[in-house]
Design goal:
Helix 1 runs parallel beside helix 3. The longest helix has 41 residues. With 187 residues, this protein is an all-alpha fold. The mean pLDDT is 82. The chain is built from six helices and no strands.
Length: 187
């Protein structure tokens, strides 16, 4: 963690450390102490988010700062990481994970982050014609691909902007009177 105690870390650093643990735990098996430490870190993130009042029930999704959007995922990450805790009695683990997932989904619904078609499909509980379910899956896939394409486009634009800024900084014009004059060291 770079020497800082969890209590001393700013929210952004704590979140990034916890997210790295989540990613490592998702890709491969990690030590249980690391998983539990990640859960503690996400719980601390939740506490900090609450104290900072980053999200309010009377806000809409447009009111949320872009920089704070990533913190919406804290309950989801905590639920997933909690599921990875190994102990003999799994029921409390599953209940804790379920509670965090439910909290995450409820907040997403309240912020109107879930499309109406998805809400309708989940309220039907899988009933409905197979053609309707397939159409929903296709629509979901298209939305996902469009979002990924837009994200890629934004990243590429940001990289180009960074490269052009670097290039312009490197190619500053030479002021008059400072032209390259060859040294007369031929003696």
């Amino acid at each position: 963690m770079g020497g800082l105690a969890m209590e001393e870390m700013p929210l952004s650093a704590l979140f990034e450390q916890a997210r790295k643990i989540h990613l490592a735990a998702s890709e491969s098996g990690v030590d249980q102490d690391v998983v539990k430490k990640g859960c503690e870190m996400f719980q601390k993130c939740e506490d900090m988010i609450g104290k900072l009042a980053l999200f309010s029930s009377n806000e809409t999704k447009e009111d949320i700062s872009t920089n704070n959007l990533k913190y919406l995922l804290v309950p989801y990450y905590l639920a997933e990481l909690t599921e990875k805790i190994i102990q003999d009695d799994r029921i409390p683990i599953v209940k804790a994970s379920y509670a965090k997932l439910k909290e995450f989904f409820s907040f997403c619904e309240a912020m109107e982050l879930v499309p109406d078609e998805e809400l309708e499909a989940s309220s039907r509980g899988g009933s409905g014609a197979p053609a309707d379910r397939r159409a929903l899956k296709i629509a979901r896939f298209k939305r996902q691909k469009a979002a990924e394409a837009k994200l890629l486009e934004i990243k590429e634009r940001k990289e180009r902007r960074g490269r052009s800024t670097k290039a312009s900084a490197l190619s500053t014009p030479v002021e008059s009177g400072e032209e390259d004059i060859p040294d007369d060291d031929s003696e």
